[in-house]
Design brief:
Length: 68
């Protein structure tokens, strides 16, 4: 077996909110922080924390590049 490297960059995940939560957002105070874990074999890598994520966001983009 020959070793290989895998590179992940520009990870983007769409968010799905209920219509009433997204379009009728009237200053919801709840905010979230999100990160992503990637596991290939025994290697585990994580991205930096993306914050704040609230109901006005339609997707999350992680700027990090992961090389496994």
């Amino acid at each position: 077996a020959c070793p290989a490297r895998l590179g992940l960059s520009d990870l983007r995940f769409p968010l799905m909110w209920k219509d009433t939560d997204h379009f009728k957002n009237r200053g919801d105070y709840r905010r979230f922080a999100v990160f992503c874990l990637a596991k290939v074999g025994t290697e585990v890598m994580d991205t930096s924390l993306v914050t704040p994520v609230d109901r006005s966001a339609t997707d999350i983009t992680f700027p990090d590049a992961l090389v496994l």
